[in-house]
Amino acid sequence: MLSWLAVWCSGLLHINAAYKGPRWQFYLFKPLTIALMMLIVVTGGEANTYAYLVLAGLLFSLFGDVFLMLPKDRFIPGLLSFLVAHIFYSVAFWLQFDGTMVWWLPSLLGAASVIIFLLLLPNLGPLLVPVGVYIAVIAQMAWGAGEFWMNTHSQMAAYAFGGALLFMVSDTVLAFERFKGPFRASVVLVMSTYFCAQGLITLSAISG
After folding, report:
1. Is 208 a residue whose pLDDT tops 70?
2. Where are the domains of the chain?
3. What is the mean pLDDT of residues 190-197?
4. The 3-state secondary structure of the chain, one letter per residue
5. Using an 8 Å Cβ cutoff, are 54 and 204 in contact?
6. Alpha carbon 38 to chain centroid distance?
7. Do 51 and 204 touch, CB atoms closer than 8 A?
């Protein structure tokens, strides 16, 4: 319980610092929030393949956070780090699936992804291919989590699916903020959904 309180406080301090400062607080508490979740997986979960894959996903998410926070924004390294994180999460989710595919889910996720990509397309420029690949990877990650949940209806799978969907929401808002233009509520929307997404995926690793 105290571990999750520390995660909540750390995430809140980062969001507050994004609007009000100080800058050191902004830079410290974003990666610290993810590092605390990693600690929860290490100390609270079973030593199994799923937990190790989630831990790897959290680690590459931490790398991505650092790249995107640097004074000279490293968007491509950050994008690649999160791409690897989503691949680890995807493998974790798909390894749990053993049943009949539900094909309406990828159709729905695919349609939503295409719409998002087309809305961003006029502003992507040279990042068209990397962003397109990223959207496809995160959509199939959510698909894997969804198939896992619909096949088992377990609490573990529900956490995973909820986290994957929130990750899509967070990244969609971030993409519109970056490529369409910033708006005041973007930070709280992106970071609250992001931290909740990672928290739910972390919970899935310790509830199996």
Report:
1. no
2. 47-206
3. 96
4. CHHHHHHHHHHHHHHHHHHHCCHHHHHHHHHHHHHHHHHHHHHHCCCCHHHHHHHHHHHHHHHHHHHHHCCCCCHHHHHHHHHHHHHHHHHHHHHHCCCCCCCHHHHHHHHHHHHHHHHHHHHHHHHHHHHHHHHHHHHHHHHHHHHHHHHHCCHHHHHHHHHHHHHHHHHHHHHHHHHHCCCCCHHHHHHHHHHHHHHHHHHHHHCC
5. yes
6. 14
7. no
> How many whole angstroms separate alpha carbon 195 and alpha carbon 208?
21
Other CB atoms within 10 Å distance of the CB of residue 81 = 21
Looking up tokens 């393949």 gives 49
Q: Is the peptide bond before 71 cis (omega within 30 degrees of 0)?
A: no
Amino acid letter for position 39:
L
Report which residue type is found at 135: I
Backbone angles phi, psi at 183, to 5 degrees: -140, 155
At 80-100, the pLDDT tens digits run 999 999 999 999 999 998 878
Q: Using the structure block, give the residue that is written with the tokens 């986290």.
A: 163
Residues in the chain: 208
For 30, 71, 112, 159, 183, the CA distances from 81, given in Å and listed in that order, are 15, 18, 23, 22, 25
- Burial of 185: CB neighbours in 10 Å, binned 0-12, 13-18, 19+: exposed
Q: Contact at 8 Å (CB) between 202 and 54? A: yes
